[in-house]
């Protein structure tokens, strides 16, 4: 059994994870010649295609917090590069569905799924109770960071006393 970890050990491990994620993302973007939003969309589409859930441009715009015009430009860029295709939305020909077109054996698919594959492997080595603890811990960090960012934004928008 491993020795007990201190709070500093946990923070260091989280910082190491963040650093490796940044390095992994930089390598993925460079090797694929795409930008951060392109990668985020492709990962999202890969995840949703496994569940066979349709993804509309509106869903992508909301996820990225960008305009419909910017979303159209992003989809155009990915379609021109052969990463995605547009299909009519089932039952509503006025809308479209965006689907990834990355072959299952493509190195691009592996590059885009490095983090999720590593996380799934590590989570698979944990028991159900341990996974719950880790998931709650990571959710707490994400909530705390979001709240801190929201508070900073509110502070920046508050009128300044002269």
Question: Could you describe the 3D structure shown?
Answer:
The longest helix has 30 residues, at 128-157. The chain has helices spanning 7-32, 36-50, 57-64, 68-80, 107-112, 114-124, 128-157, and strands spanning 84-89, 92-100. It is globular. 67% of the residues lie in helices and 9% in strands. The protein is mainly α and 162 residues long.
Which key phrases capture this entry?
two-stranded antiparallel ribbon; single chain; 7 helices; 162 residues; mainly alpha
Unreliable sequence segments:
none
User: SSE order, as H and E?
Assistant: HHHHEEHHH
Strand element count: 2
Helix tally equals 7
* Sheet with most strands: strand arrangement: 1-2
The percent range for helix content is 55-70%
What is the gyration radius calculated from CA atoms? 20 Å
Q: What profile does the largest beta sheet have?
A: 2 strands, antiparallel
As a percent range, the share of strand residues is 5-15%
Mean pLDDT: 89
- The N- to C-terminal Cα distance equals 59 Å
Shape: globular
**Structural class assignment:** mainly alpha
